[in-house]
Amino acid sequence: MRTVLVTGGTGTTGRRVAAFLRTRGVKVRTASRHPVAGDDQHVIFDWADPGTFAAAVDGVDRVFLVAPLSDSDPASAVGGFLDTAVAAGTRRVALLSASAVTDGPSGLGALPPLVRARVPEVAVLRPSWFMQNFVGNHPIAVGIRERGRITTATGRGRVAFIDPDDIAAVAGQLLFGESIPDGELILTGPQALSYDEAATMVGEVTGTPVHHTSITAGELTAAIEAGGVPHDYARVLAGMDEEIAGGSEERITTTVRDVTGRAPRSFRDFLIDAHRTHPAHSAHPARAVA
Ligand SMILES: NC(=O)c1ccc[n+]([C@@H]2O[C@H](COP(=O)([O-])OP(=O)(O)OC[C@H]3O[C@@H](n4cnc5c(N)ncnc54)[C@H](OP(=O)(O)O)[C@@H]3O)[C@@H](O)[C@H]2O)c1
Description:
With 290 residues, the chain is of the alpha/beta class. It folds into 2 domains: 3-127, Rossmann fold; 129-163 and 187-250 and 262-290, UDP-galactose 4-epimerase, domain 1. The chain contains 12 helices and 11 strands. Helix 1 (14-23) links the parallel strand 1 and strand 2 (27-32). Helix 1 crosses helix 6 (164-176), helix 3 (75-87) runs parallel beside helix 4 and helix 8 runs antiparallel to helix 9 (231-245). The structure holds NADP nicotinamide-adenine-dinucleotide phosphate.
């Protein structure tokens, strides 16, 4: 029986990929730094500790790979992990990258070429920005809840936000199926929205107004850094906002439909669902409309 390792297995995408595969009868092992109570299929795994790699990949055929977070140069940790995984029998990797990342010699862009060079079957998923950033603990969601405000450096640029359930459905299908498609897998939602438009939609769904303020990339770098993110990575994130301002995230692709056979969820439907199931997560509890 096939075993799939899901790194970042308790995170936004990883836990959805694990759930997708389990409902199809695939044996799934999730991996992250912290234990999951009552789950004996979860292993302790830390990108900063290569001593945790071997147990995680033991008997694993396929891997969903979420690279080290907040690391502007994750290639050395990922390279060591891939060597261990391939030696243990891993043949396919679905790498979670991002539409904002292009292949290059260093940084996040170094990962797709690295994985392709070491693993026989590789799918690089390049999702647009997550709808999930507007709920839960992401800084955008926190800004909405605490101040009724979204702050970016995106200007009037538009983003084709995607539901993480759709990313997981694509990743799960690629890790479950017999073959993987050639070419780039750029994953988007069905509609490109500016943050002004997204803020208005959040206000309409939650019943409380939300505003968007666009600041400079330098100001955003300082703000992200003040939240505890290392300077280099804060600059990378703010630089992505500058790219959005220039129109880099406006494209809409058919990849979700092509791979899963169904249309991706719209931002409005995502928000309605999130507000219905977790109203305190999608708006300030004191201001949320019941
Ligand atoms: N947010 C967006 O809009 C967006 C858009 C495109 C692409 N992406 C990409 O999505 C990725 C993040 O995925 P996500 O949102 O699913 O993750 P997430 O929700 O932030 O969760 C991170 C997961 O990784 C684990 N983790 C964190 N540090 C770790 C470490 N040192 N070693 C091992 N595991 C560790 C966490 O569990 P523990 O804490 O237990 O370790 C958790 O399971 C990033 O690579 C980002 O570039 C995000």
